[in-house]
């Protein structure tokens, strides 16, 4: 597998990011994590907003401070995006958890989901988190396998809006 790393969003990779968004649009899939739905018409403003979110600034109501990273390979191709919540609120404790991630549709089934979660767990340790909650739909078998490969222990399944959500905890220390 190529050398992979998580980087903070940067305007230098604007065209690469927009290509990834187009990949999702063509697939007609919901973009995950939610930060992929931010307005990109002013790319610099989007990158600045993500930075402010990571600093706990300008956070929408019912949100918590969160950091976004892009998974890139040595060619600086953006393979996926991860969003790490610095703490949980009541809603995130039920669905969403600490970490949300997505791999662009054209790059799936190559081990990138396992890698992005593994690297995100290292970032979560840097936030001084002892354990993290990661959730997925019960029918997303690939995501469940990824979480389990990274040490996830199923705590519960919750019915949310007609969808069964699995809640996994991963111990970091």
Quick recap:
The chain has helices at 14-27, 43-54, 90-94, 112-126, 141-149; strands at 5-7, 66-72, 78-85, 99-103, 131-137, 153-160, 163-171. By secondary structure, the protein is α+β, with helices and mostly antiparallel strands.
Molecular structure report:
By secondary structure, the protein is of the alpha+beta class. It has a single domain (5-128), classed as Gcn5-related N-acetyltransferase (GNAT) (Aminopeptidase, 3-Layer(aba) Sandwich), CATH 3.40.630. It contains five helices and seven strands; from the N terminus they run βααββαβαβαββ. The protein has helices at 14-27, 43-54, 90-94, 112-126, 141-149; strands at residues 5-7, 66-72, 78-85, 99-103, 131-137, 153-160, 163-171. Helix content is 32%, strand content 27%. The strands form two sheets. It has a four-stranded antiparallel sheet, sandwiched between helices. Strands 5-7-6 form a three-stranded antiparallel sheet.
Per CATH, the class reads Alpha Beta
Strand content: 25-35%
Order of helices and strands: EHHEEHEHEHEE
SS class: alpha+beta
Low-confidence stretches: none
Radius of gyration: 15 Å
Oligomer state equals single chain
